[in-house]
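Propose amino acids for all 223 sites.
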């Protein structure tokens, strides 16, 4: 995890002054957060963009990240959010209260963790009846995906221009992400479904146009 921490510290130092860009599927994800959410846990919060969004509807939000640089920026941007708490550390190593959260959310983070171990721990964090939302990147190396990439890439660039006013990230930022990407591996749709069947039976899998998937799982029982 040290490599991941170092990568995101570097990315944070390069992008902290840039215009924020919301996860384009934020509205979709927010729809799955319980309306009466008392306590929500976000794993891998980065600059805290989603944590701040969800803090407007949850009574209390705990947001975890591995990168000190990311959290330094997140805390500054969350000034005034009295119901938002940030924790620095490796989710798998942190001692967190079990069955204490109405919702657990992880965005673009699961692929950095041993999936089985991480999902088992996330499930123990949830109260009975709670909701787990996993949102992550899909592998795009298949022939069909490469063909779709001819459409997806310009759409992705258009989204970036709309959010940040430029078609591409600065060269030094692209290099930092490329270096980080050397250590990355993503799931194919069939692997996501297999992971769901093994660890989150009954969960709903939704694939998205821009190389993303979401699993929404409800823990048995009533809150």
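Proposal:
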């Amino acid at each position: 995890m040290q490599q991941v921490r170092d990568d995101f510290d570097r990315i944070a130092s390069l992008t902290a002054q840039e215009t924020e860009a919301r996860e384009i599927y934020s509205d979709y994800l927010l729809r799955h957060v319980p309306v009466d959410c008392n306590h929500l846990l976000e794993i891998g919060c980065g600059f805290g963009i989603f944590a701040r969004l969800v803090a407007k509807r949850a009574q209390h939000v705990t947001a975890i990240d591995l990168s000190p640089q990311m959290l330094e920026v997140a805390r500054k941007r969350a000034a005034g959010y009295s119901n938002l708490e940030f924790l620095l550390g490796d989710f798998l190593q942190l001692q967190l209260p079990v069955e204490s959260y109405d919702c657990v959310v992880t965005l673009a983070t699961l692929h950095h963790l041993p999936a089985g171990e991480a999902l088992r721990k996330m499930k123990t964090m949830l109260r009975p009846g709670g909701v787990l939302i996993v949102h992550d990147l899909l592998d795009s190396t298949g022939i069909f995906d490469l063909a779709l990439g001819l459409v997806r890439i310009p759409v992705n660039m258009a989204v970036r221009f709309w959010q940040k006013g430029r078609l591409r990230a600065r060269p030094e930022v692209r290099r930092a992400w490329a270096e980080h990407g050397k250590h990355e591996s993503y799931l194919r749709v069939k692997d996501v479904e297999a992971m769901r069947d093994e660890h989150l039976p009954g969960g709903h899998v939704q694939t998205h146009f821009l190389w993303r998937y979401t699993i929404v799982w409800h823990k048995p029982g009533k809150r």
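The chain is about 40% helix and 20% strand. Helices lie at 2-15, 26-30, 49-54, 68-77, 115-125, 143-164, 171-181, 189-199.
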